[in-house]
Amino acid sequence: xxxxxxxxxxxxxxxxxxxxxxxxxxxxxxxxxxxxxxxxxxxxxxxxxxxxxxxxxxxxxxxxxxxxxxxxxxxxxxxxxxxxxxxxxxxxxxxxxxxxxxxxxxxxxxxxxxxxxxxxxxxxxxxxxxxxxxxxxxxxxxxxxxxxxxxxxxxxxxxxxxxxxxxxxxxxxxxxxxxxxxxxxxxxxxxxxxxxxxxxxxxxxxxxxxxxxxxxxxxxxxxxxxxxxxxxxxxxxxxxxxxxxxxxxxxxxxxxxxxxxxxxxxxxxxxxxxxxxxxxxxxxxxxxxxxxxxxxxxxxxxxxxxxxxxxxxxxxxxxxxxxxxxxxxxxxxxxxxxxxxx
Length: 342
Ligand code: ASP
Hints:
Layout (H helix, E strand, L loop, with lengths): L5 E8 L4 E3 L6 E3 L2 H6 L10 E11 L6 H14 L5 E5 L5 H11 E2 L5 E4 L12 H12 L2 E2 L2 E2 L4 E5 L2 E4 L4 E2 L8 E2 L7 E3 L3 E3 L14 E2 L7 E5 L6 H8 L6 E6 L9 H12 L3 E6 L12 H8 L3 E2 L5 H13 L4 H8 L9
The site of aspartic acid (ASP) has 11 residues, from loops.
C-alpha cells in the first residue's frame, strides 16, 4: 500500500462507535469524529484515509433499503477518487446490507469492505481496532497497479469473506460471522494471506454501475412443524406481495400435505415468485432428492441452491427493482450474478 492509495471510510453506526449511556447503561451510536480520535494508529498506515459519516449513525437493526441506497450513493459519488472503501456497520444486519450492496454495485473494480465489532472501540478489550486496521490494509491491496479485491466483502475476526455468503452466527463471540458455503477470501495472521483463486472476477472492461432501485414487496416464511394453512394463506395473500422465500428443511424439503402444495400452486398462478432456501446454515437445496421436495420441483419453485437467506432476500429486492420479466425471473435468480451461489 503506498501513500497514494486513498481509502474512504464510511461510518454508518454500530457497536464500533457506540458509548454507554450514563443513566441507562444501554449502548448507543455516537459521533464519528470521536471514533477516529480513538484510533491514533490510523495515522501509521501507509495510505490516505478520508472519512464520511451518516448524519445519524444507526444501530444496524434500524437499517433498511433506504440506507443501503445511501451507501451506494456515497460509493458511486466517490468511486473515481478512492482505490478502496471500508464501511463501518453494526454486525446485526451487516450480512443483509453487504449482500444488497454486492448486487447493487455492478462491475465493481474496487474493494468495498464491511466491518464492525462486538465491543466499542473505546473498550479495553475491543476487537474494533484489528477489524478496522486490517480492513483498511486489505482495501488498499494492489496487484499490477489495480486493486486486488474487486468485490463486496465482510471482514471480521481475522477472516475476509465474500459478503453475500455470510451470516451472523454469534451474538457474543468475536468470531461472529460464518460463510458456510464459500471459503474465506483472506485470513489474517502474522501476514494477510489472500486466496486469490477464490476472488470474484468482475466482467472485464464493463463499466461500473450503481443500481439503486430496490423493491421491498418481499417476504420470508420459515417452515416449522405444525404451521397451519391459515398462516401460510395469510402471508401468501399479502396484497401486492411479489416474491417470497420459503425457508425449508434440509435439502429443500417440505410437508407433502395437499393443502400446502395447492396454496403454493395458487400463489404461483397469481404471479408470486417463490424461492426455496434451506434453513440449514450449510449445504443447499436439491429439489427432487427426497419425495418431500418433489412436488416443489414439479411446481417449478425457484431453486435457491446454497444461497443464504440474507443473500436471497436482497437478491429478490434487487431483481424486482431491475424489473426482470416474470418469464425470465426464475432463470435469472438461479444464476449466480455476484458469486452468491454455487
Ligand atoms: N446492535 C449492534 C448493531 O448491529 C451490534 C453490533 O454493532 O455489532 O448495530
